[in-house]
Amino acid sequence: MKLFIKYMVSNRCKMVVKEELKKIGLHFIFVDLGELEIMEDLTEVKRDLLRKGLLNSGLELMEDKKAILIEKIKNVIIEMIHYSDEIPKVNYSDYISEKLKHDYTYLSNIFSEVKGMTIQQFIINHKIERAKELLLYDEYNLTEISYKLNYSSVAHLSNQFKKITGLTPSHFKKLKEKRRNPIEEIGE
Fold first, then answer.
1. pLDDT tens digits for 96-137?
2. Cross-strand partners of 62
3. Which region holds residue 150: left if phi is over 0, alpha if psi is between -120 and 50, else beta?
4. How many Cβ atoms are within 10 Å of 149's Cβ, its own excluded?
5. 120 Cα distance to chain centroid
6. What pTM was computed for the model?
7. Cβ pair 161, 167 in contact under 8 A
8. CA distances from 104 to 52, 99, 119, 150 (A)
9. Exposed (0-12), middle (13-18) or buried (19+): which is 135, by Cβ within 10 Å?
10. Alpha-carbon span 160 to 177, nearest angstrom
11. Phi-psi label, residue 38: left if phi above 0, alpha if psi -120 to 50, beta otherwise
């Protein structure tokens, strides 16, 4: 049985979900960002226990088909930008469409309707957050970061960075109090 979970955006979230499943005696086949599959059928009592346990950890069991699809879109983007070694060189629209086995126009329309922003805006927000993270780690220079995040040029990354944060990447790097956003709050 497949289940879908909102705000599940990191490996730590996966560990929390596995722990909750173990507490109520459910066995999983897999646990991934935003979804999991369990071996058993879920009784109402166990569903309620799981829902409450997840809520205590800031996660949410989802039932609505639109909400599930939106979470899947968000998770594909988060995984692509934050957890892949390299962002795919294909069009994001093709990549997302291929991963979710849906027409991109359909996905885009539902996403915009529910989230009030385009998938492209969501991607840009995440790319800028990832750029902030990479700047703070100080392992890569701006040219390497722009390449890693699949920008056409450093200028393009710098322009988007300034548009989103109000700061240039170099000014951001010099700030004493670095301001980053948790992944689950980007685009909310």
1. 999 999 999 999 999 999 899 999 999 999 999 999 999 988
2. 4
3. left
4. 20
5. 13
6. 0.76
7. yes
8. 34, 11, 10, 20
9. buried
10. 21
11. beta
